Amino acid sequence: MAYITSAALADKGFLVLDSYNQELDPQEWLDIEYNDWKSSGDTRFAPLASAKGEIECNGFWNHVPPRTDKDGVWIDEQTAKAPNLTRRAQEPGANVGRCRVIELQPTPYGECLYNLHQDDNNRLNPDGTGWVVRGFFNLTDDKDSYFVLRENRTDPSVEYRIALPAGAQLIVDTQRLWHATTHNGTEPRYCLITSWTSGPELDAYIEKYHGTQDVENYPVDQAILDAGYEEQARRDAARAAYYAAKGQQEKIAMSEA
User: Fold this and answer.
1) How far is CA 1 from the centre of its chain?
2) Residue 117 · residue 255 · CB < 8 Å
3) How many CB atoms are located within 10 Å of the residue 123 CB?
4) Reduced to 3 DSSP states, what percent helix, strand and coil does the chain have, rounded to the nearest 5?
């Protein structure tokens, strides 16, 4: 199928934008309402825009009528408490689908690798329209944490590790890349996640903030990497055995979050 996509994302599937001075903004993510919605890891989500403007996190295709991850409805009681976060999500001028803040508890590298997943952003997306990607704005100062991106979930030969200090800004084709976060802090990590529709508006935003794929991998000791690979393999084997014992096919790691 032919979709409108961003050429800047074609090579590696992600971009890092200019860092944002997060310290200038209040910590609005502490004031909004969260749902115990599980994604990759121990998470909660606070939606700012949802399918019908309600405080819920379900995929838009699970509503009536079902639709793709576009035309999100802003939740007045949430956006009133988080005007700066709302402004940032709306700044590109691209169509917004789901928009919410994720709260992630500490997650070591091995668990992160087990949690690697692809998003189902473009289910029901009509041919010839904009491909849905996601923006990630790191809100807390998680200098020891990093976003993990892979082309192949179990192949570490192509693994991008993006540092996550406060103000880090990424755009990721999360339906293409397997992704999850290694969070080495002791407090929760908070990040604003917005579904954007690709097109000229998003392209202009990428250019304005100098989106680049040429970033150094966050450095991780080889012993930690090796232990992570072993933990992922161990957990994957345990999951496969669980489904085999139930006579079921193993589920693919695809997230609706």
Assistant:
1) 24
2) yes
3) 18
4) 25, 30, 45
Q: Which residues contact 26 (CB under 8 A, 6 or more apart)?
A: 84
Secondary structure, 3-state, 41-72: CCEEEEEEEECCCCCCCCCHHHCCCCCCCCCC
Please, what sign has the CA dihedral across residues 133, 81, 137, 41? Answer: negative
Strand spans (E) along 4-111: 14-17, 43-50, 73-74, 96-104
User: Which residue do the tokens 């690798």 mark?
Assistant: 113
pLDDT in tens, the chain (257 residues): 699 999 999 999 999 999 999 999 999 999 999 998 766 678 899 999 999 999 999 999 999 999 999 999 999 999 999 999 999 999 999 999 999 999 999 999 999 999 999 999 999 999 999 999 999 999 999 999 999 999 999 999 999 999 999 999 999 999 999 999 999 989 999 999 999 999 999 999 999 999 999 999 999 999 999 999 999 999 999 999 988 888 876 665 545 55
Tell me the pairing of strands 254-255 and 118-119.
parallel
Amino acid identity for residue 117 in this structure: H
**Ordered structural domains, the chain, with CATH:** 15-248 (2.60.120.330)
- pTM of the predicted model, to two decimals? 0.94
**Token pair belonging to 100:** 């919410």
The single-letter code of the amino acid at 2 is: A
| Sheet with strand 43-50: strands edge to edge | 14-17, 169-172, 132-138, 189-197, 96-104, 43-50, 73-74
